[in-house]
Amino acid sequence: MKFYLIILGAILLGCTDATSFKSDISEQDSLSIKSHESLLKFKQDNKIEGLAFAIFNNKETLFKDCAGRSTYSFKINEETLFSIQSISKNITALALLIAVQDGLLDLDVPVAEYLPCFKVNSCFEEEPEQKMTLRMLLSHTAGFTHEAPVGNNYDYRTCSKQDHFNSIMNTWLKFPAGKSYSYSNLGFDVAATIISQKSGLSFNEYLKQKIFHPLGMLCSTTDDQEIKATQNKTEGNISWVKSKHHSIPLIGSGAVYTNLNELISYVQLLMNYGQTGNKPLIERKYILEMAKINTVNYGLGTYIDKSDDVLFIGHNGGGYGYSATILWFPEYNLGSLILCNGPSNTFDFCFSLMEDYIQAMDLPINTSISAEFDMINGDYFKNKTDNEQPVFSSCKCDTTFKTDWDEYTGKYSIVYEGMDFKWYVKAANFLGFGYQNIYITRDGQALKYTGTFGEGTLQEFEPGLFFTDDFEALDFKPEIPTFRNIKIRKRNN
User: Fold this and answer.
1) Max Cα separation, the chain?
2) DSSP tally for the chain: helices H, then strands E
3) Residue 319 pairs with which residues in a beta bridge?
4) Each residue's pLDDT tens digit, 40-54
5) C-beta atoms surrounding 218 within 10 Å
6) pTM of the complete model
7) What is the pLDDT of residues 133-143, one digit of tens each?
8) Among 377, 436, 438, 386, which residue's Cα sits nearest to residue 409?
């Protein structure tokens, strides 16, 4: 589908109700209508109740549109607050680099120097926090698993950000610090805590002083009380859970709420390489540092990759019933974003419409920008296949079956906490059909697992504590066992 935006004035520069929009412009250019209808089709195909979308360059908004309603039945508009989930990681990375610019922090100093009380478990090395740097926290190379034991995508109970952070210290690393890559929330939550400790401000206040308020993002926040007090907001939709507000304790990895207009301003800051108005919020070199690939097409809180030879930079967010994407094509000075109150593949939608826009408007490529980014990441893209090969580590574990492992075999179900399930889910759970399950079985002289978290062989590091082949922890020592820090309950043998 071609994405023609010949008429850029009043036609498509404001959000409107999806139903009235078509009739208002029914006599206008039919090709412009297609752009709006593609948004409605995306909404319908993904069963999303409400969303907001925009395309823009570094100076102005070219197209924005809102469709549907919030979970409170208000019409979505450009000021409706959404959770942006993991896009928060990009904001946390920028915040930390502002602290680096201000001389408060250093990317390559170990975490232990900033948080002497912070400890984390590792079967690979002693005191990994002495080797783990802020750069590793922001590039998913510190070794953390994805979830924390308290406040995760299966635990919706209200908990404090401090309780969430404290629980990170009970986790086990998947590899030695700095030696591989694994996407994780935890490094960013540790980074946000360090920013707060060193600045003397809450992380929310630091974001407001250093990023949000200078950009005019007056509604953006991580503070749950502010979010609850805002009428113009939407919760996320999880089809099998009754919709209600859930406090998100993911300090630096997923706690930001913002709206369409304000997130446009944020992405335009990146597109202007740190400039806002006539002054820099952050120096250009730090924006480029965020876009320098460390490993597996990830820089600092930022995805960088190429598709069809188009360089793109951005981040996705998903969880708690939300989905979102920010996307920037530096060579074409073109940005896009989408906010949804339901799960969906937001990246593909943004990318496709941006490609169509480039073709329809015949946008020229800026070869000087291409050269600049090639200097930063050219070697990575030349050897991308080799650079993305996983690095395997090992530690001393026992894989030969022991008789006392028999007590661990059986069917286990994930424990969901703090979720108000709909009636049919409760009925399915009561009958034993509704859970996500893990099966632990003996296979010859090995202990195996299959189910929700894949399949593989378990190896025992210490009595009751096992690791998978990729060193996710299965811990039978607590009263309620955990797998990948998510509680599981034995249902039968």
Assistant:
1) 77
2) 15, 18
3) 322
4) 999 999 999 999 999
5) 10
6) 0.92
7) 999 999 999 99
8) 438
